[in-house]
Amino acid sequence: MTAPAESKLYLGLCQQIAEVRSAFKTRHLKDTKTPDEQIQEQAEGKKPLLDMQKLKIGKKLPDEFFNDLLSVLKSNEFFSRMEIDRLLANKEKINLLKLIRLVLDRDFPRLISFSSQLEIETDLVLFIGLNLSQAVLELYADTIKDKVDQENWLKGNCPVCGSYPGIEKLRRDDGKRILRCSFCGTEWYFKRIMCPFCDNEDHNSLRYFFIEEDSPTEKAAFRVDVCDKCKSYIKTVDERKLPESEKPDLYLENFNTIYLDVLAQKDGYQSPTYWMVAPSEDLLV
Amino acid sequence: MKISRRGFLKISGGVTTGAVLGTFGVHLKSSQAHAQTLKTKYAKETTTICPYCGVGCSEIVSVSNDRVINIEGDPDHPINQGSLCSKGEALIQVANNERRMTKILYRAPYSEKWEEKSWDWAIPEIAKRIKKTRDESWMAKDGKGRVVNRTEALAGLGGAALDNEECYLWSKLARALGIVYLEHQARI
Predict the structure, then answer these.
(1) Cβ contact, residue pair B17, A282, below 8 Å
(2) pTM for this model (two decimals)
(3) Which residues does chain B have within 8 Å of residue A281's beta carbon, measured at their own beta carbons?
(4) Chain B interface, mutation test: which of A81, A178, A219, A262, most B Cβ atoms within 10 Å?
(5) What pLDDT, in 10s, does the model give residues B55-92?
(6) Measured between CB atoms, does A3 come within 8 Å of chain B?
(7) Which domain holds residue A125?
């Protein structure tokens, strides 16, 4: 199943961002250190490693990645030229640390007023905020993700930053379910028959759907797991059903499979993560 | 405004709808159009224990429209951790198999043909033959005159596919019949 041609512009943007993000990480991974006091005791409390309230993100990293983002946005036509020009004109006025904080706190009302003060469209502001937070968090997460107790965490939220999973995969070797954090990109183990959003384990209210033309299911490398209790969904890439040479990039697959989000939402399910920068009732046709 | 992890579920959707979709909404139209051409199929997953041997591997069974569409090793189970032997891997063939018997077929001694029979015929026939063999072979005492009350002409073979209760009943029945060759198949 390939994405429709019309969304190539958007996919191109995501691809470009993935590239600058990876270069950004390579540049800084060596000298980024997460202070020990910020790593919580995971042992008894089962809390995420990073204490998001205490995490102090310096100005340097967001500033640098913001410039990376701007150069991508300038070269891609996804956002209109006019909007980007307005963004560039107001560049200095944007308090990036505040923006990151608002995104992490999911403070939508303030995000909306934040963008209207800058006279920049909220979707663009949120897009920048989201990508900034993800790039910076991913960097911090990478320095400490080895400390995650994979065998014992088994919770629906990220063991490093506590956020929701954005997408998941079934591992090629053994079908193990691995969730990927929608923010810091950390991957962690989770139970196969359980909802990561509400911990529902009743198999009668957990289902998945796939595209009928992909059946028999040997071909259905993409599926969507839904919970009828909390009405949420998460997209799943089944690595075992992809050619052995193919190693899916979950970050990009998430954008490649937006038609699955549309289908899930049409059936009344919602993604509790930031989805396409906005919750999505408007999408229903 | 602080939103807890659980609380956010309830309000997601309402807060920003229409406010921030902007550019993305336009680009989503193509995904929407694409989605409209696709039909979805739902399936449910449940776990089961493999019936073939005593190891007790767990498997995940996918069912769609009352039909088993996939069976795989359960990666979360401490015993098999997702792996299966070749028999367990082929378990779906127990459910979906055109060669699976759905009627009783009987081949009489020395006959070359299979005949379809009913349960009403088969069960009394089995009982009759067991009784005949047992009566003919009944041994009340052994060669040294000790009371044994047994038959050596019948044998019982249990299978790992039987559950506890079935095994209990089967062994009771076999012992009541005087069977001493009572075996099981907890091996592959």
Answers:
(1) yes
(2) 0.81
(3) 13-14, 17
(4) A262
(5) 889 999 999 999 999 999 999 999 999 999 999 999 99
(6) yes
(7) 8-146
pLDDT mean for each 10 residues of chain A (285 residues)? 59 89 90 72 70 80 92 87 87 89 82 85 85 91 86 89 92 94 92 95 96 72 95 94 89 87 90 59 35
B88-97 contacts at long range (C-beta below 8 A, 24 or more positions apart): B88/B50, B88/B52, B88/B57, B88/B59, B91/B50, B91/B51, B91/B52, B91/B59, B92/B68, B94/B51, B95/B68, B95/B71, B96/B67, B96/B68
This model of the complex carries an ipTM of 0.85
* A1 located within any domain: no
B88-130 pLDDT, tens digit per residue, is: 999 999 889 999 888 999 999 999 999 999 999 999 999 999 9
A140/A192 same-domain check: no
Last residue of a domain, one of A112, A146, A180: A146
The size of the A-B interface in CB pairs under 8 A is 188
Last residue within a domain, chosen from A146, A169, A187: A146
Domain boundaries, chain B: 5-36, 138-183
Provide the number of structural domains found in chain A: 2
A63 in a domain, yes or no? Answer: yes
CB nearest B16 (choices: A206, A270, A278): A278
Reading the block at residue B73, the tokens are 């090793």
d(CA A145, CA B161) in angstroms, rounded, equals: 44
Taking an 8 Å cut-off on Cβ atoms, the answer to whether A272 and B29 are in contact is no
